[in-house]
Amino acid sequence: MTSGSRALTMAKHKLDKDLKRVEKLEEGTQAHAMRMLPASLALVFLVLTGMAALLVSGMGPGWVVIVGAAVVGGYMAMNIGANDVANNMAPAVGSRALTIGVAVVLAAIFEAAGAIIAGGAVVATVSGGIIQPDLLPSTAHFITGMLAALFAAAVWLNVATAFGAPVSTTHSIVGGVLGGGIAMAGFGVADWSVMARIVASWVISPVMGGVIAAGFLAYIKFTILFRPDMLTQAQRRVPLLVAIMAGAFAAYLLIKGLERVWEVPIWLALIFGMGVGTATRAIVKPLIVRRVQGLENRRSSVSELFTVPVIFGACLLSFAHGSNDVANAIGPLTAIYTSIVEEEMVARAEIPIWTMVVGAIGISAGLLLYGPKLIRSVGSKITKLNRVRAFCVTLSAAITVIIASTLGVPVSSTHIAIGALFGVGFLREYVYNNRDLGAVLSLEPPQPKIDPATGEAIATEKYFKAKHRFLVRRGYAIAIVTAWIVTVPATALMAAGLALGLQAIGIDIFLPSNL
Q: Are 256 and 323 in contact (CB under 8 A)?
């Protein structure tokens, strides 16, 4: 090879290396741009929110605080969408009834519809009576506490979402209001009886959700899935289960989905739900009979029968969630805006259209931009889901709320959904590790356990000791419970610090002088 050929070859190698470096740089730049895209779009939304608030305020007295509160309210709404909505869609995604892309689009549509259609005309701006506004020294103190509460709750939700922990947005804002109120007026401003009920809900919500979900899963297992004639049993029992779900959701939507528009008596909601359930069973039964024709007598075939109910349930949960939890973002924002405009402390106020739009769009934007991560985590990390288990989780959420509303017990939708996931997971684990019990209840003889090494039957006790499996991830469960426990204290401390900081820097100068 001549020196010229060698030089040409070396030049080609160098050019190839340079091209590869350029390609890697381009790939890295594109990946970085994709990672930055959600943050950029979120920033655009917050800027537009601030501009909308500026137009509404007309740069009148207190406009700086109104704009700031609107941006923080939009930030809170996005974090609600990113964190709390996962509880509604995770079972459908975890069971593969929906893809993650379709799930976030459906959730965004139904969350926004719930917020705008049934979000209500009037909102209790002090989040369920956590503090007593009349004990605050002035309207300025009230506004400062609300602004601090809103920001603290939003930051906490952001942190929880980053770590993949589903937490209650209601408890987040409750902790923020509590901390902001105490910082402004001392411990006497808090209504500790309300706080006691909220603390009780930490236990009641997941336990009720778990027991109800496990109960339905046990019924399906022992009356359908563990029977030799699974499809025959499914034709008899699935229409009843779907009817129960339809009736429960009909009552649920009247009780929770429309409570800010029309306060429906429990008895009326239950009667309406029974009517819807009866009609649904009559409609669904022939459809199920036709659907099972040609299907194999397998558990996967039974699971397919629950696909549509799981999807409908997830959408209805999102609608009810949007109608209720939008108040966690726009409640404090409405309090701040109305108090400044009317120049007096306002504990209950009509919701301005623009704040409702901010809340609805914010929840949907947060879900679309940041929701998929938590939906995947909740849908797969606690326990493995199929459509039967997802159906039980979704149904449990509606029934638990109905029971709690009837008894007057406050519950958290987040805690119910996670508790239901734990319930089905622990039931699966118990049945798996006690297979003889499952065989007896399903009227099937227990199968002998064979040692794969020797081919001989082995003792039941030895088999279970060797084969015990954990079907619920303990580490993730501990992390979630820990996040639940610290939510109210963490947001309260953050809000108290923020409120004192705002007061120290003189937020009063941006408010009308008579406040």
A: yes
